[in-house]
Amino acid sequence: MPAGAREPYFVRSFERGLAVIRAFDADHPELTLSEVARLSDLTRAAARRFLLTLFDLGYVQTDGRMFRLTPRVLELGYSYLSSFTLPEIAEPHLEQLVAQIRESSSLCVLDGDDIVYVARVPTRRIMTATITVGTRFPAHVTSVGRVLLAQLPDEEIDARLARADLRPLTARTIVSADLLRTELRRVRRQGYAIVDQELEEGLRSVAVPVRDRDGEAVAAVNVPVHTSRNSVESVRRDLLPQLLATVARIEADLRVTGLTGRARGASRGTGTHR
Q1: Would the pLDDT of 129 be above 60?
Q2: pLDDT tens, position by position, 47-97
């Protein structure tokens, strides 16, 4: 099939409607018609039709000039989460871990070039980043993303790094594809990832992959800590063993349920996102 071609079943108008929804984000909670058209790569006429359809369905509200999503959009994400049993399996184990270490912990999956939080147990410690279920970050700058990327074939890693936006988020962010490739090989060998202040200054994070009964890495669990409380060595010495034990318990429950990534769509590794 020629590059960029679509399968005969592909519904182009549905893709465009989703692009309109995705035009809204934390940086663009309200948009004009022209802005929606530009961000979703549509004509003004097409963008208007999609926005008015979403308005009629209750997914968009408008004052006549500015458009914004309504809470009803959350139903779309909830449909995925409510049919996805892995967060339900993992959450009690995350709660136990958080009670032991007094640090937050989350379960994430790979979705295209991003990681998405699908379960989270926070502590009362306040971090700069506000993270909830549904939050997403570029996979290559996160500990959970790196342990999941490290499980992919080398040729897929190369393709992902080639299209990744390697801009520096902090002074410590790795922005070289070659250095990232080396880091992912190291993560693959050691079975865990520690990311030190690459996503946010003052934030360190350690993550371990969660494997299903077929050995496929379907998700990852992380523990983020503030640099003032934990050195890289203390993360490796004190937190990593407890994180590994927690993941082992989650994997044991996965084996009992028979849940696999292929059966339940736990790792959406082939999608693309703007």
Answers
A1: no
A2: 999 999 999 999 999 999 999 999 888 777 766 555 557 888 889 999 999
CATH code for the structural domain at 84-264: 3.30.450.40
For 12-75, CATH gives 1.10.10.10
- Tell me the HSE value of 272 on the side-chain side, using a 13 A CA sphere: 9
What's the confidence (pLDDT) of residue 239?
93
**84-264 matches 12-75 in CATH topology:** no
Q: Where are the domains of the chain?
A: 12-75, 84-264
In contact, 103 and 153? CB cutoff 8 Å:
no
What does the pLDDT look like over 213-247, one tens digit per residue? 888 899 999 999 888 888 898 899 999 999 999 99
Q: Kindly state the tokens that stand for 10.
A: 């592909």
Would you place residue 261 in the very low, low, confident or very high pLDDT band (cuts 50, 70, 90)? Answer: low
**Residue 97 in tokens:** 């871990």
Residue 12 CA from chain centroid, whole number: 25
